[in-house]
Structures are given as structure tokens and as C-alpha cells.
Amino acid sequence: MPPRRRSPPPASPRSSPSRASAPAAATASRAARSPRSRWPPARSCGPRTCPSATPRSRSRRSPSPAAPSGSAALYGGAAFDLSSGKVLWQPKASGCQDLGYAGGEQLVAVRKCGEYGDEKYEVQLLDPKSGNVKWSYKLPTGIDNAKVISSKPVVFGVDSGDVTASGVTDVFSLDDSGKLRTKITLADGKYEHDCGVGDVHDCHAITVGNDKLYVPTKEHDGTAQGSRTNEIVTFSLATGKTAGDKIDAGDDYEIFPIRMDGGNVIAYKDGPYNKGSQVVSVNGTSLKETKLLETPSTDAVRSAISSMVPKSSELLYTDGRLFMGKDLVSKPYSTDQKEYAALGFGAK
Questions:
Q1: pTM of the entire predicted model
Q2: Closest CA relative to residue 306, chosen from 266, 343, 335
Q3: CA 74 to chain centre
Q4: Could you tell me the maximum CA-CA distance found in the chain, to the nearest angstrom?
Q5: From the CB of residue 285, how many other CB atoms can be counted at a distance below 10 Å?
Q6: Residue 20 above 80 pLDDT?
Q7: Closest to 307 measured CA to CA, from 6, 40, 79, 1
Q8: What is the CA 3 to chain-centroid distance, rounded?
Q9: What is d(CA 5, CA 270) in angstroms, rounded to the nearest whole number?
């Protein structure tokens, strides 16, 4: 059987990382930019406001500049009304630093306080118009990162130890008052999602809806001889236990969630060497799958899609159109080589 076409991935105030509408505020962080981070970060805007660019920290373990003893520095973000340019709120003198924000239905911030070596981290829900903190959830001691998966409900993941290959090892589900509902443990190496190192709002192939967490498994042997496949499994955001739902990719396909569409899951299916890739809608109750789009199966298109590494790069689907783009671009090795920075497909 010819090889699969997929290639492995290369070795303030302060809403859901899903591509929903943004909060009524623009935010800007004072954190330092990382060369490995995506820049500028993906954003989604509402009719009047849009989050401004949020620089990334160089590494989730590297120290940030500390204010001199006995003094306070300006760390945080600012918000602007996009129609008037009016400043809605701005940084205040504080010993804390906003590491980043996530928008959508609500505005969530990840904040760090304390001196180097004794930092404390927390996740906050903010009022986008005033910057006031509605509630704050303090992370357990020893946790120095938080990656927001959803802003409503507030769900975030962490690496509980060293940086792992799977994005996050533990997922925290909070209620409307900022209290912990449950913690979901995702064993490293068992699940196939991606979250940027040091980034607050940069998770892919993992989503929240129907009071559940949707996450894809690693590939494994399929039912047909020599085939490979995987599935999307679910966890309850109330109990932390598996919810029993399983969305199968099918032999020689790999599936992962893009985002929610109401109660349905919009998912991407990476096809085998002789077929195109698909975007499907999966009913959240019956798990019935409806194909929305299929890419051409020509060698040129399959090669171009493979170069994008869809699971870890920008991938958007809306109104019958699929868009994907690389995070980084480089000069081609030769003038005869054609490389794409972005691709777009439309349903017939």
C-alpha cells in the first residue's frame, strides 16, 4: 500500500479560543515575544471592538523582568473602543503581569504575580468594558502555565510537569463563579492535540461544547489490514469522566475537531494517499456525520495540504469554505519548488 500522505509535524483586562465573536475591548500585553510563538496571533473581531496583538513570553519557564524592591511596575493590558479609539482601561502599577488573554463570549486573562522563583499564577474573568476582575482562580502550586481552551464555560489546560508532546496534561473546568468543577487528566502520548508553548490562547484540535471536552486520540491500527485510524473522544466537564461518545475517523482517515457549531462538532478528516481531506459536521447527540466539504485528491493538492500540518497550524471553516495557513514561511529551496503560505477550498 502506498504510504499515507500525512507527514509528522516538524521536530489585559483580560474569551473561547474557538473562532467566536470577540469581547467589547481591545487588549495588549506587556509580556515578551517568543521566536517560536505565532505572530501576530489569530484574532476574531466583533462589530465595534477587537483584541489587539498580544506578545508572547519567550518561554513559559523563563523569568520576566521584576520590578525593583519596594516599587511597582506597569504590567497588564489596555482596552480600546474600535469605533472611537477611546481608552476603556489601561495598566495600573502592580507587582503582577498579564501573560495573555483569550476572547470570545467572555474575556479571560492569565496572570502572574510575585518575584522570580516564587511566582503565583491565576486565571481571571474580566469585564471587557471596565477591566474589573469578576473572579480569579488561583492555580495549584507548581503550575506555571495555563492555556485557555474555552472562555464560556471557562476551561483551560496546563502542563503539570515539563513541557509535553501532547499540548496539555490536565484540563480544568470552572463554573460561572470561578470555582473548580472538575479536573480531567489527559495522559501524555495518548491524545493528539496541540497547544503552543508559552501561549495563553493557542490550542488546536481540542474543543468544548455540550458540557463536554472533545479531544482526538493518537492513531492506531484500523479494522482493515495495514490501515491506521483514530477517533474523537469526550469527557464530562462536570465529572471529569469519559462521556462515552466516540467519533470514529474510519480506516485510513485521521480526525480532529476544529470548533463547535451550536451543538454539532465541526471536524477535519485527513484523508489517505488516494483521497481528499474532508470537513464534516457531527451531530452532538446522535453522532451522525454529514460531509460539508472534500478537497481534491490530486497529488499537487495533497502535497500542499500536507505541508500545512493542519493539526498545528491555522485552520478555519465557515460558510462552506476551508482556509488553512502556515505559521512560519521560508524561502523555497529552489526556484522550481512551489510552496504555499495559505490554502483555501470551497464546497461545490
A1: 0.78
A2: 343
A3: 28
A4: 68
A5: 10
A6: no
A7: 6
A8: 30
A9: 9
Q: Give every CB contact of residue 271 below 8 A, 6+ residues apart in sequence.
A: 5, 252, 253, 277, 278, 295, 297, 302
Q: What is the CA radius of gyration of the chain?
A: 21
Please tell me the distance from the alpha carbon of residue 72 to that of residue 155, in angstroms, as a whole number: 31
Match 481528499 to its residue by C-alpha cell: 276
DSSP 250: -
Q: Say if residue 124's pLDDT is above 70.
A: yes
Task: Using DSSP, state whether 89 is helix, strand or coil.
Answer: strand
Task: Report the percentage of the chain scoring pLDDT > 70.
Answer: 76
The residues pairing with 233 across neighbouring beta strands, listed in sequence order, are: 215, 246
d(CA 96, CA 119): 9
List all residues 6 or more positions away from 73 whose beta carbon is below 8 Å from its beta carbon: 65, 67, 93, 94, 95
Is 255 within 8 Å of 235 (Cβ atoms)? no
Q: Which three cell numbers stand for residue 172?
A: 480544568
pLDDT bracket for residue 8 (50, 70, 90): very low
CA distance from start to end of the chain? 30
Q: What is the DSSP letter of 115?
A: S
Residues of 72-92 as b/e, b for ≥16 C-beta within 10 angstroms? ebebbbbbbebeeeeebbebe
What's the whole-number mean pLDDT along residues 253-259? 96
User: Using the 8-state DSSP alphabet, how is residue 269 labeled?
Assistant: E
- Give the 3-state secondary structure of residue 305: helix
Cα 127 to Cα 15, 42, 132, 148: the distances in Å are 10, 21, 5, 17
**Cβ contacts of 82 within 8 Å, gap of 6 or more:** 26, 45, 48, 49, 50
Per-residue pLDDT at 159: 84
All three cell numbers of 335, joined, read 526556484
pLDDT higher than 50, residue 218 = yes
Query: Is the distance from CB of 249 to CB of 255 less than 8 angstroms?
Result: yes
- Taken as a whole, the chain contains a residue count of 348
Distance separating alpha carbons of residues 170 and 159, to the nearest angstrom: 7
- Those residues whose C-beta lies under 8 Å from the C-beta of residue 324, and which sit 6 or more positions away, are 305, 308, 310, 313, 314, 315, 316, 342, 343
